[in-house]
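User: Hi! I'm working on a homework problem where we have to compare a predicted structure to a textbook description. Could you give me the structure for the chain below?
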Amino acid sequence: MIQRLTRNKTAMAIASIIAGIYLMIARRNAPIALLRMIGFALLGVAAVYLVLYFTGKNRDQVQLVYAGGAAVLGLLTRWLAPVILNIFPILLGAAIIIAGISNLTAARDPVYPRTSVIGPILTIVLGAVIVFHPGTVINWVIFLAGAALVLNGLTELDLIRRIWNR
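Assistant: Happy to help. Predicted structure tokens:
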């Protein structure tokens, strides 16, 4: 039992290290590939709903709506992956700026100390950096995610080594 568990854990740790290295090297192409895989998965979900509709005893119209929605989202995600990747950080940065402004107005209340405005100001600056440099931010986030995956895989392998050396 433990041998099978450690074998599966080892395989997942190695897969984590490989995925992390890929993310660290591919950076800009990795999110596009991920979005296209998500689109492919949505197309698979659409196919499953169609199969369930045509093979099921009760033909619920909702399954056709789900199939159509998943197919449209899947095709849009596959075709427009670069556009989505370019628009999403800008929308995220704008949302962060709005949240920072909201927090800043709340922090200016006399109940809070004067230093409580530092967090909202840093939030607004972070949102502005994301809006004006979305490509750089995406590259850094992808690189850090890859580094975290590599670190996680190495930690798992070290844990497995310690278990076997007991």
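For your comparison, note the following. Helices lie at 2-26, 29-55, 61-79, 81-107, 118-132, 134-164. Residues 5 and 160 are 10 Å apart (CA to CA). Good luck with the assignment!
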